[in-house]
Structures are given as C-alpha cells and as structure tokens.
C-alpha cells in the first residue's frame, strides 16, 4: 500500500521525489528526507569481526534515531532497514540474528525494544541470548563500569545457540565495546559470526578506532618509557590525573575519565 505522508516530516510522500522513487511507490519517507538517508553498504573489520555498516553517519540519521527511541515515534520503526531489507534477507539467509542486550529500565520506559522492532519485517530468526547485570545508566555512573562492559553484559544461563551462522545487530556502534563483548561471549560458537549496524561513529568508521584506542599524552609517554617515574628530563604528565566530580572530586587517571565521559554522553543521545 502506497504511503501518502512521510513518516518523519509528515509532508506529502511525493515531496522532492525522483521519478524512480515515484514509480517504485514503496517509499516510507518523502524525497527530501530520503535523500538525507544515504545508503553506505560498507564492510570494515573491528578487532577481527566483520562489521557491515548500512548508512553514512550524519546528523539526520542520528536525529531520526533519537526521535524514534526517545520521542517514542514508533511509526519510524520500518524506515531504518526498509531500503536494505531485501538485501539483508538474501545476503544473510543462512544466519540467525542476535540482538544485543538493551537496558531493561529503558525498554520498560519506552514500551518497546528499538532494534527488535526495526527488524520485525525481517524473515530471519531472531534470538536474545544476553542480559545486563544492571541497567545501562547505572553501569555508566562510575568510571570502572564504563570501561569494563564485560562486567555488565552476560550470557543467559542454559541458552542454546542455533547451529547456524550468527549476525549481531545493533543500531549504532560508537566505541564498539558492547559489540566486541557480545562477540567474545560467543567465541565457543563453531559457526561464522558477523555484525550489522545502521551506522558507526566517526573514529570507528574512518580510523577503525574505539574509545579504548584513544590515549592522553601522559599514557603514551608512560608506554614509550618517559612517563612518571622514568627519570627522563622530558617526562610528560599531560592529563595524568583529573578530578571525577561524580565521585566527590577524587583524582582518577585522566585518560580513562575522559574516555568514560565521552562514551557516557554519547550514550545519552542514542541509548
């Protein structure tokens, strides 16, 4: 059934449509919005796992995800994978989709699981083998928990994985820590494991970097042998320690604090 109105901006679906889009008559977004949603279809390697990235990262896509998840605009659930769903069903027909764990608190608050609902029209079997030991926001309150996601994500007891290839699916990959943790938990699985994301953060996509790859000058100096305690006259201490005001101003390693805070604020926008 042809849509009459854009599910995002509510303009007429024919607004700025190309002739091809008009003839297809299966768009969920008007031409103006659809042109902002640029299909990328690129594959990168993230610590050994093949990660398929669906779309080019831009503010439009990030804002649309925020409207869907935080604005509870469930009419958008079909939009994200609409243009590539046939390719997903064909390319990964021998795979089982594995959903990453969502915060139970957030799921209850929203009333739906964002990624699961995005994939409701997918023909592939979907499983949820993971759970979180605490809700997402609580896990980010202290620096140690922010940097140690493996303590937050666990495999459900007595879970039996299907004897198929697995496709880990997430909407947004920023640091890659959650994805890699899930991948590590599945290491005993004998079949091929790949991942799919709507889009990735700039550093991860362009440089293959996660938050764990970024260091302060003081940390690199220590690694290179001229940090604190080395006796080197050129010793550098830049951002060695910083006050953690969420913990009564206690001084903590600067690099770890900055990485934790960057990921925390990023997650507030997309979690």
Treating each run of at least 4 consecutive H or I residues as one helix, how many helices? 12
Uncertain ranges: 136-146
How much of the polypeptide forms β-strand, as a percent range? 15-25%
Could you say what the CATH architecture of the largest domain is? Answer: 3-Layer(aba) Sandwich
Helix content: 25-40%
Q: What fold name goes in the CATH topology slot of the largest domain?
A: Rossmann fold
Largest sheet: 6 strands, mixed
SS content category: alpha/beta
Arithmetic mean pLDDT? 81
Taking all Cα atoms into account, the compactness measure Rg is 21 Å
**Integer tally of domains:** 3
The first-level CATH class name of the largest domain: Alpha Beta
Task: Describe the model.
- The chain has about 270 residues and is an alpha/beta fold.
- It has three domains: about 30 residues, no CATH class; about 180 residues, Rossmann fold (3-Layer(aba) Sandwich), CATH 3.40.50; about 60 residues, no CATH class.
- Helix content is about 30%, strand content about 20%.
- The protein contains twelve helices and ten strands.
- The strands form three sheets. A six-stranded mixed sheet has the order 1-2-8-7-3-4.
- The longest helix is centred in the last third of the chain and has 17 residues.
- The chain is globular, with a radius of gyration of 21 Å.
